[in-house]
Amino acid sequence: GTMAIHIFEEGDQLMGRPENEDEPSVLTPLGEHRFRPVMAREALIRFSVEDDQAINFSIAFPDERGTMMAFRRP
Q1: Do residues 39 and 25 make contact, with C-beta atoms less than 8 angstroms apart?
Q2: Is the pLDDT confidence value at 50 over 80?
Q3: Half-sphere exposure (Cβ direction) of 30: Cα atoms closer than 13 Å
Q4: Global confidence as pTM
């Protein structure tokens, strides 16, 4: 199925919040458009960037969830 994940800036931190969660998670920068969610430390988020703007991202889990893709919506 599909699920919206809201990515936003809060102060100087990048945050992520799945639509079914109340608490956002800080996204810890790892370099080269890669981040690790504090609340899901096993996951790795990698943004695809064009013209200095994120156009999509993948989130990879080392378990049965595998890798999911997310696409930017206006």
Answers
A1: yes
A2: yes
A3: 12
A4: 0.83
